[in-house]
Automatic annotation (TrEMBL), chain A:
UniProt source species: Litoreibacter meonggei
Any Pfam family hit: BPD_transp_1
Segments passing through the bilayer: 12-33, 88-110, 130-149, 155-176, 197-222, 254-275
UniProt-annotated location(s): Cell membrane
Gene Ontology, cellular component aspect: plasma membrane
UniProt domain ABC transmembrane type-1: residue ranges: 84-275
UniProt similarity note: Belongs to the binding-protein-dependent transport system permease family.
The protein, known as: Carbohydrate ABC transporter membrane protein 2 (CUT1 family)
Coiled coil: none
UniProtKB/TrEMBL annotation, chain B:
UniProt keyword terms in alphabetical order: ATP-binding, Nucleotide-binding, Transport
UniProt record similarity statement: Belongs to the ABC transporter superfamily.
Organism: Litoreibacter meonggei
Protein name: Carbohydrate ABC transporter ATP-binding protein (CUT1 family)
InterPro entries tied to this protein: AAA+_ATPase, ABC_transporter-like_ATP-bd, ABC_transporter-like_CS, ABC_transpr_MalK-like, ABC_transpr_MalK/UgpC-like, Mo/tungstate-bd_C_term_dom, NA-bd_OB-fold, OB_MalK-like
GO cellular component: ATP-binding cassette (ABC) transporter complex, substrate-binding subunit-containing
Length: 290, 360
């Protein structure tokens, strides 16, 4: 089928395509370019596409991770490096916790008959209906005065897990329902205990669901600003909070902010790419007669 | 290989009683077939034995040991499921060795057992494949192999052949029959197909509406069914039933109905003298009717359809308002639409009470 041809389209169609691409990619390209510019170039009235690219902004942002001492950095501000580490830890830990708790909860809701099952199932969704802004004040109050975990990573992780669990439970429920019950019965006959049935038979079959849930959870945790801004202190700030806070009334270092923005974009891309490879359809093919 | 005893076992879902209390004893080393129409409770019985369903009453004993509180894995059972239930994310070898790996058997032993069973079932070349890459018949073998690798005392089969096409089913049935003779284990087999039951079972338990109707060897069930249900369920083509009335005439007992009057043999008529009722149902196997009228009492039937099956033909005929099937040799063809006289082998006539369905 190498001689596949397409009909000639109306030129307006291409114009529309170009406009859409520019709208989608333009800001990112602009950010990428700006991150390679000196502040002089950024601020100059003659800013253009032609400039001398430099890694200085990245060196400034990552100064405490560099194995050499960047010549232009006389004082290393560790804020961004610390924020990146915070973001990674908070996102990864909250993702793992959410998945572990979520898959067990979803399994119990699907397979076990217990009092209040339907109520629990529904109320998890109700949690999701509350916008984070509504949660903000009560969470801040409770975290600060009752639990005294404000300003810690654990505090932020806790609220992210709570926020993401309902969605993860719901998405995994739909995957677990599709696992034929006969497989679990066969495993029980083969001598597997409840946990072995879950980990050796059910979990491998809902891998696509886990991957989808992981991508979602990681991205929410990575991008979240509102709650992190309220709960974090200097040492536990995540990247989005740091970027906003680096805009002061005295100085906006656009170059560094853009470099930080680029660095912020990379981990979710890698994570999504890795996780999405697990999303294959037809995991349960061949299990039972269709 | 324990002796399995059901003692007043019952099952109900909420207020719906699906199995009233029943007793059943399965002998050591026996191939028992539970057979009955859909919804008769045979699968539930098997699943209670397997431990996949709880008992609502009574107790199951393995030898003298009560087992209803034991987990399935502690009952020394292996089970083959109707839908195969293979683990789709594991290779065939991993599927078959799953139980052994859970039991932490030594690796060399696992490999040895899997290889031996795979060779026995002709699935050795498939060991590295995944279930999705196998055909239905191959999956069925793997499911069987997974149970055989276990070396359990009792094997349970839940309609294992019902998902296969007719030809493959016949082949697998023959292989199962061969396996039955080579493996000295308890086997409990559930099916709705009476042919499977007749060919495989040492003993058949016929169930209907949650009740055990009759149990016995295939021959006992065929020759002396206790009621109309068992008589109609066992045997293919199934038994013909025609309503009639007992009459005494000419010093003999006759059964008389719409379009026929048949004399009863002495031993049957002797039994009929003891019963009060006169309204009966006559049971005639299609094989009890013959085109050779010299061999039996004459009956006139109108042939409606002649179904040619090869060496044999099944004639659908009408006697009064009732359909009567007749099995004949195809060598003596009968034209559809004609009225013909057949001979009834009177010693094979069965008489049932019309009201209760019990055999008289």
């Amino acid at each position: 089928m190498s001689d596949k041809t397409y009909d000639k389209q109306n030129p307006a169609f291409y114009a529309l395509l170009v406009a859409l691409v520019v709208m989608a990619v333009g800001p990112i390209a602009m950010m990428l370019m700006t991150s390679f510019k000196l502040n002089v170039d950024i601020m100059s009235d003659t800013s253009s596409l032609i400039f001398m690219p430099t890694l200085r902004n990245y060196e400034t942002a990552l100064c405490d991770f560099l194995w050499y001492e960047a010549a232009h950095v006389d004082y290393c501000d560790k804020t961004f490096g610390r924020a990146l580490v915070n973001s990674l830890i908070i996102s990864l830990v909250s993702t793992v916790l959410t998945l572990v708790i979520g898959c067990m909860a979803a399994y119990a809701l699907v397979r076990f008959r217990f009092m209040g099952r339907d109520t629990v199932s529904l109320s998890t969704l109700a949690m999701r209906m509350v916008p984070p802004a509504v949660l903000l004040v009560p969470v801040f109050g409770i975290w600060t005065f009752q639990f005294q975990i404000d300003g810690t990573r654990a505090g932020i992780i806790l609220v992210y897990v709570a926020m993401n669990l309902p969605f993860v439970i719901w998405i995994l429920q739909s995957f677990i329902v599709q696992v034929p019950i006969q497989l679990e019965e066969a495993a029980r006959m083969d001598g597997a205990g409840p946990f072995q049935v879950f980990f050796l038979v059910v979990l491998p079959l809902i891998k696509p669901g886990l991957a989808a849930a992981a991508i979602f959870t990681f991205r929410v945790a990575w991008n979240e600003f509102l709650l992190a801004n309220a709960l974090a202190d200097r040492n536990s700030r995540t990247v989005p909070v740091t970027i906003v806070n680096s805009m002061t009334e005295f100085d906006i270092d656009w170059g560094v902010i853009m470099a930080t923005g680029m660095l912020l974009a990379i981990p979710p891309i890698i994570f999504t790419f890795v996780a999405s490879r697990q999303i294959i359809t037809g995991m349960t093919a061949g299990a039972v007669k269709g | 290989m324990p002796k399995i005893t059901f003692d007043q076992v019952a099952k109900s879902y909420g207020s719906v009683e699906v199995l009233p209390p029943f007793d059943l004893a399965l002998d050591d080393g026996e191939f028992t077939v539970l057979v009955g129409p859909s919804g008769c409770g045979k699968s539930t019985t098997l699943r209670m034995l397997a431990g996949l369903e709880t008992l609502s009453g009574g107790e199951i004993f393995f030898d003298e040991k009560p087992i209803s509180k034991l987990e399935p894995k502690d009952r020394d059972l292996a089970m083959v499921f109707q839908d195969y239930a293979l683990y789709p994310h594991m290779t065939i070898a991993k599927n078959m060795s799953f139980a052994l790996r859970l039991a932490r058997a030594p690796k060399s032993e696992i490999e040895e057992k899997v290889r031996r069973v795979a060779e026995m079932l002709n699935i050795a070349p498939l060991l590295d494949r995944k279930p999705a890459e196998l055909s239905g018949g191959q999956r069925q073998r793997v499911a069987m192999g997974r149970a055989l690798v276990r070396d359990a005392g009792t094997f349970l089969f839940d309609e294992p052949l019902s998902n296969l096409d007719a030809k493959l089913r016949g082949k697998m049935r023959a292989e199962l029959a061969e396996m039955r003779d080579t493996i000295d284990k308890n086997m409990v087999y559930v099916t709705h197909d009476q042919v499977e039951a007749m060919t495989l079972g040492d003993r058949i338990v016929v169930m209907s509406d949650g009740l055990i109707q009759q149990q016995g060897t295939p021959e006992e069930l065929f020759k002396s069914p206790v009621n109309k249900f068992v008589a109609g369920f066992i045997g293919s083509p199934s038994m013909n039933f025609i309503d009639g009335e007992l009459v005494d005439d000419d010093g003999k007992t006759w059964v008389h109905g719409d379009g026929f009057k048949l004399p009863l043999d002495l031993d049957i008529s002797a039994r009929m003298n003891d019963v009060q009722t006169r309204a009966v149902t006559v049971g005639l196997r299609p094989s009890s009717l013959t085109t050779d009228i010299s061999r039996g009492a004459p009956i006139e039937l109108k042939v409606v359809v002649s179904e040619y099956l090869g060496a044999q033909s099944v004639l659908v005929t009408r006697c009064g308002g009732a359909d009567v099937l007749v099995e004949t040799q195809s060598t003596s063809p009968v034209r559809a639409g004609s009225v013909q006289t057949f001979g009834v082998l009177t010693n094979e006539i069965m008489i049932f009470d019309k009201a209760s369905g019990l055999r008289l």
